[in-house]
Design goal:
With 115 residues, the protein is mostly helical. Helices cover 72% and strands 0% of the residues.
Amino acid sequence: MELDYQAIGVRIRRLRKERGLTQQALAELSGQEPSNISHIERGATKLSLPTLVGVANALEVTVDQLLCDSLPASRSVFETEAAHILSDCSHLELKVILETIRTLKENLRRLKLSE
């Protein structure tokens, strides 16, 4: 399986913004140039292993959290992320989201069966 550098970049950008960091700050924390962080976030460059580890450490996340879109065995990362997203939802929001997930899952499985 190929690494999805665009998905890695999207995750890095989202995590950077969640932590209130600029590209400059992330670059300093991870030992990179700001232009390299920009390229990484756009998926325009391939990360070396040391760069990936440096960025993960700077963001205080595990490497599997950055690579989960390219790792078939990363179910726990997605479950943790979903729990985090849902953690501040109201009762009504949870109810609507749950029903949406149920419908989406049924439709995805129906589509898969018709292939």
